[in-house]
Amino acid sequence: MSVVIAGTGMHPWGKWGRPFVEYGVAAARAALREAGLEWTDVQFAVGADTIRNGYPGFIAGATFAQALGWTGARIASCYAACASGAQAIDIARTRILAGLCDVALVVGADSTPKGFFRPVGGDRPDDPDWLRFRLLGAANPAYFALYARRRMALYGDTSQDFAAVKVKNALAGSLNEAARYRKTVTAEEVLASPMVAAPLRLMDICATSDGGAAVVLVSEEYARRRALSTAVRLAAVSTVTPSFPNTVLELPCFATDSTAAVPPPERAFRASIAHAAYEEAGLGPADLSFAEVYDLSTALELDWVEDVGLAPPGEAAKLLRAGDTALGGRIPVNPSGGLASFGEAIPAQAIAQVCELTRQLRGTAGARQVVNARAGLAANQGLFGHGSAIIAIT
Amino acid sequence: MLPSKRLCHIGSMAAPAIDGWFTVDNDIVHLIGTRCADCRTVYFPPLTGFCRNPHCSGEDLAPDRLSRRGTVWSYTNACYPPPAPFVAAEPYTPVTLAAVELAEEGIVVLGQVKDLTVDDLHVGMELELTAGPLADGPLVWMWGRP
C-alpha cells in the first residue's frame, strides 16, 4: 500500500501582511481543486503550526479546519520548526497507512514580521533561543555564516561559488509563479550586496516570507475508487533526530555535544536525515532526478548537496561550477528556486518543497520542468533536532 | 577588598550576564560545564539532572571547569545590530563571534570575540577564554587572543 499525493496548492510567497489563515485556506482550496476533491471529503486535517501568530498558530489544524468550515473531521497540529510541514505530512500519511482514514489534508502557512527572526517575546533566561540573542547577539545568519566560513577553510569554496548558487536559484525562481523573488540576478549584484554575517552577504541569506502550502494525501485504493491521479506517490518521509553526540554547532545552541566519552556517529545529522529517507524508499542518490534542499544560505545549499549524497564531502562546488545542479543540468538542485527565491515561511516550507516534487514528477512544472523526472527528494532541518526528508516517485 | 588593576580590566565588578556558566577568578576566566560522573561526558551550558548520553543512566553531573584554550572551528560577525534581547552599543560596531573547539572536552563553544575582527581570525587559530561587558553592563565570556 502506498500514499498518493493527490493535489498540491500554494498561496504565493511574499510580504503580504495578512493573517496566515488566509494563505493556508487559499493553499488548501487550491490543493483540493487540483485533487478533484471537496473539503467535505477530507477525513483528517493536519496543520503545521506557526509560533509567531498567537494561539490560532499553535493549533493550526483547528484554525484551518474552522476556516474551511467545521465538518467534524479529525485534526492534528504539530510544530517542528522548519520541519513542521514534514512532520505534518508524516502524521497524515501514517494515519492513512494505518487504515484510519483515506483522505488527509496537510496545511502550513505563516505571516512573518520584518527583519531578522527574533525570539518569541518576554524575558526567558531558561530558553536557549532567547539566551543566544541576549548573550551573543547570534541571529540565525550567524550560524549559516559559521558553516559557510568552514566550507571556505576546509574545501576552498569562495564567495563567487556562493554567489553562483544565488544566480542559479534566482533563475529557477524567475520561472516559478509562487516565488516571492522573480528577478534574475548576477554574481556581481550578489557580491555587491551588503555583508550581513561574514562571509555571507544579504543576497546569500534567505528572507523571511509570508506564504502557504497544502497537499492532499489519499490512500491508493481511494484514489482508484474516485479516479484521482495516482501519478505521484510518497516513497519515504524521514523525520529522524540527531545521534549523540551531535558534533555540529546547531541553531540555537551555544555548544556541540561532547565527544569526550562517545565518539561521533557514523553520519552527521544532516547526512542521517537523507540516509533514512533513502533506506525507507529503497533508493539512493543516483536514483534521483532532482532535489529540493533547504538553502537558508547559498553556502548551505552546497552542504546539503553533499549531505544528501549528490557529491562527496567538499565537492559540491565542483558540481555547481560544472552546471550539474542548474536547471537543465545532470541533477538539478532547487528547481523551484529554493529559499533564495521564496524566503522562508517556516511551517509552509517543507510542504512547498513537496508541492515542487509533485509538480516536477507530474510534468507540470512548466518552464522549469526537469526532463523525465522520476524521483525527487526534499530535505530540510528544523532547529532543536528536527530532521525532514521526503522522497516522492512516479 | 579592592579589586586589582587587571580585575578591573576584565570588568569583574560587573555582574555576570548569566549565573553559573563562567567564573572570573584572579582575572582568569573559566567556562563552567558539568561532567557526568558515570560516563565522563562534558556539558556546556552546564547540565544538571540527567546525562544525555543515550547509553548512560548517570544522574550525577558535577560542575567542571573547561579548558581555557581551543582552536577556531569557525567564525563570523554581526554587521547589523542584532535584535532584542541583545542590547547593541551605540554607535554600533560589529560583534565578532567564534566557535572554538576544546580538544580535551571534545566540544565546540560559541562566544563573542574580544578586541578582534573577522579579519584577524582564521579557522584553526588558537584563542583563549576571557570576558567582557555587554553594552548594558553585565559580563559575558568571550574568546580573545592568548
TrEMBL record, chain A:
Coiled-coil regions listed in the entry: none
GO MF, one example: acyltransferase activity, transferring groups other than amino-acyl groups
Domain Beta-ketoacyl synthase-like N-terminal: 57-111
Thiolase C-terminal domain segment(s): 269-389
Pfam families: ketoacyl-synt (PF00109), Thiolase_C_1 (PF22691)
Name of the protein this chain belongs to: Lipid-transfer protein
